[in-house]
């Protein structure tokens, strides 16, 4: 295959520009290669769905044809958030899933997120898939079939049963014109909430803002609407509904590590000593709070697939990333689902009878930088981080090196890691005040200047 889009095969998914990188021919090959990755005697169906992008229908059709031509049966769950594909795999005991989505990327992108069994495909498996897609995989198997299947009612009923609210909320939801509005608005109404909808009409052009709740400017409309309607909270979803953003009743963003802190305290009342996982970028206050509440805090590598794998390995009941992926495994399946996370967050607020600011009042106030990105080529970025680890270890610094370099100071930390998704280095710092923050930042930046 000429012009194979090697760069579209990333750590956790396949993503690129539709029509040039992510073509229908590529989708067809993916269907065939995915079938080859399954056990030889696999007879269960594969779940296929998509987000709202305009390139989705053509890619989905080609993908299904590839799967069918390899002898597999497909259940087409249509336009839904990615977590509903995960839910379908669990509930229908499917062979796996391929979801056509580019998450929060601009509208001209598309891609694929995949599961084999109940495990997200990532790392080496995605590279293996890439190799298979460059081979000729014609099989002599009988053609499979494709059955349309709606998973929405089953999902909604599951969450309504799982998350009854002891008091109703007035909630604003911003789906960024992705697929989550269609699921979350009726779901939260069934939970008794008054729901005010913002950008809940699916529109693959994303005309209002990028569906990425980790960017503060994408949360401005949500915050304003919460204030205007005197709502209890606002919930935003990313473009495929696996990441959540929250604003409180004042329209203030509550970042994911603080959400995880609150959810952890709640969980540990029911499951003393439970293991809870977060990533290398999260606040030290989160890890301290989990330990203080009697939990076992695990710091792990960034990436939703890696976190899910670590949850299975450790038996963790809860996990979360700064990017808004929250994973519940106590009453749920352990995958990242923003609509479900929103219900759990409202249930926590209802059960405690408190506001976010009341619940966070005892958490020490620190200053932290957002993620600072420094352009660095894909060829160089990992080397730079390796050199940094050698250098700062030799100077006697306390270093966590599971994913980049997190230097632990007595009163804070500084992180330098290579981005898995961009040609960039990423830094983040947390300190008791701005003066110390600047000192920590200067330490790493002055070394970077010498490189
Ligand atoms: Zn996403």
Give the topology, please.
Elements: E1 14-17, H1 24-37, E2 46-50, H2 56-69, E3 74-79, H3 82-92, E4 96-100, E5 109-116, E6 119-120, H4 124-133, E7 146-148, H5 152-162, E8 170-174, H6 180-190, E9 194-198, H7 220-228, E10 233-237, E11 244-247, E12 253-254, H8 256-270, E13 275-279, H9 284-292, E14 296-300, H10 304-314, E15 318-320, E16 326-328, H11 338-352, H12 356-359, E17 367-368, E18 372-375, H13 378-394, E19 398-400, E20 405-409, E21 412-418, E22 424-431, H14 434-449
The structure holds zinc ion.
Zinc ion binds next to loops.
Kindly describe this structure.
The structure is a single chain. With 451 residues, the chain is of the alpha/beta class. It folds into four domains: 6-149, Alpha-D-Glucose-1,6-Bisphosphate, subunit A, domain 3 (Alpha-D-Glucose-1,6-Bisphosphate, Chain A, domain 3, 3-Layer(aba) Sandwich); 153-252, Alpha-D-Glucose-1,6-Bisphosphate, Chain A, domain 3 (3-Layer(aba) Sandwich); 256-359, Alpha-D-Glucose-1,6-Bisphosphate, Chain A, domain 3; 367-449, Alpha-D-phosphohexomutase, C-terminal domain (TATA-Binding Protein, 2-Layer Sandwich). 37% of the residues lie in helices and 22% in strands. The chain has helices at residues 24-37, 56-69, 82-92, 124-133, 152-162, 180-190, 220-228, 256-270, 284-292, 304-314, 338-352, 356-359, 378-394, 434-449, and strands at residues 14-17, 46-50, 74-79, 96-100, 109-116, 119-120, 146-148, 170-174, 194-198, 233-237, 244-247, 253-254, 275-279, 296-300, 318-320, 326-328, 367-368, 372-375, 398-400, 405-409, 412-418, 424-431. Strands 1, 2, 3, 4, 5, 6 and 7 form a seven-stranded mixed β-sheet that branches. Strands 17, 18, 19, 20, 21 and 22 form a six-stranded antiparallel β-sheet that branches. α1 runs parallel beside α2, α1 packs across α4 and α5 (152-162) crosses α6. The radius of gyration is 22 Å and the shape is globular. Zinc ion binds next to loops.
